[in-house]
# Entry
Amino acid sequence: MTNEEKLKNDEEITEEEISDDQTNDDNENTQEQEEVTEPTDEEKIEQLEQQITEYKDKLQRSQADFENFKKRSIKEKQEFVKYANEGLILNVLEAYEDLGRALEVEKDEDLREGVELIYKKMDKILKDEGVEEIETEHQKFDPYKHEALLTENNDDYENNEIIQDLQKGYTLNNKVIRYSKVIVCKK
# Structure
């Protein structure tokens, strides 16, 4: 073998070695990447268990929200039913008060008895529905129950005490449906 042939042969061997080294390096890098990117079975199980826990939490929150919504809806419906007759009762109160005024002036005994029976029936019906008259006599003025139409300086009454009830007020199940119109003492 000549020198030239030896050199050529050496070059071929070197190229093969370099090529083999690169292939080995590439394989090692690929294996390292695969090891880094691909989780183990235990890690997969942990991830899945975390997802399960998150989904359970979301489901429990959704169920709690739905239960709260149902309770709130039932309460709103009960409130609606409780005060549904408010408009009707306000209209009936006018006739009820007219009957009360008729009793005060009626002189004929037979007619008075008939009006009195009707008045008592209406009074019972209204009370059964939860309607109550707002007390004003010798009461302190309460802006949540009374509407002051006039003020007077009167020595017989204390400051902010109701002097006279001009129009009766009523509550329906403890909710004011008509304010008492009153005269209040202001000193």
